Amino acid sequence: MASITTLSDTTYAALIHYLPPHAPQGRRTADLRLRLEAIFHMAHHPAHAWHQLPEHFGRPNTVARFFRRLTHAGTWHRLLKALAESPPNHPLRTIQHAICRVCRRAARLGGLPLLALIRRLDLRAALNGPPWLLPDPALAATLHAIPLGSLQTPGALQTLFRLSRAALGRARIPRSVRLSWP
User: Fold this and answer.
1) Is residue 4 within 8 Å of residue 44, measured between CB atoms?
2) Is 150 buried (19+), middle (13-18) or exposed (0-12) by CB count in 10 A?
3) Rounded to an integer, what distance in angstroms lies between the CA atom of residue 2 and that of residue 45?
4) Following DSSP, what letter does each residue of 131-157 receive, concatenated?
5) Insertion element IS402-like domain: from which residue to which, for each copy (predicted)?
6) What is the pTM of this model?
7) Rounded distance, CA 176 to CA 174, Å?
8) Pairwise CA distance, residues 140 & 166, whole Å
9) CA-CA distances (angstroms) from residue 31 to 66, 106, 118, 140?
10) Mind listing the pLDDT tens digit for each residue in 52-103?
11) How far is CA 173 from CA 28, 125, 133, 148, 155, in A?
12) CB count in 10 Å sphere of residue 37
């Protein structure tokens, strides 16, 4: 069986449509397929830092910079939307787990918009931790819509406070919990 980071021709052809045509500085990427395989490789090894990337993928700083540029360009957002809309036999489905793993790695850079998209599409495998420890934008919006006059009952303010803390998520999630999350 081929390595999980090796992209087949059909998968690569499906994936290429969601990538920006040029790098942000306007140059074409030398070996786009190899860089994508490097990103998927790192996503499957979450405990590894970029400098531990195997040599055959190229310079680690170059791949890490490319990953950040793709994240800021919204590439992973587009791929998650495409996964949600694609039929079960679509070529992207063969690398769905890999795309979800990359989104976990991109969560800090993608911020709350990426997290909200993952929750809305119900792709829990793309969350970088258990949902009950992460911010919940939908709950925050619901709490914001509660009229203040309805908080006259005893304990309502305390309940609202607890719910608002839950909507914010935890400031820090222990590494052991993040790495053990499927």
Assistant:
1) yes
2) exposed
3) 17
4) GGGS--HHHHHHHHTS-GGGGGSTTHH
5) 7-79
6) 0.75
7) 5
8) 9
9) 12, 21, 29, 43
10) 999 999 899 989 999 999 999 999 999 999 999 999 999 999 999 899 889 9
11) 38, 16, 7, 32, 29
12) 21
What is the H or E stretch that residue 32 is in? helix 32-43
Angle between helices 32-43 and 9-16 (to 10 degrees): 100
Burial class (CB in 10 A: 0-12, 13-18, 19+), 4: middle
Q: Give the gyration radius of the chain's Cα atoms.
A: 19
User: Taking the mean position of all CA atoms in its chain, how far away is CA 122?
Assistant: 12
> In what helix (H) or strand (E) does residue 11 lie, and over which residues does it extend?
helix 9-16
Residue that is written with structure tokens 């309940």 in the block: 159
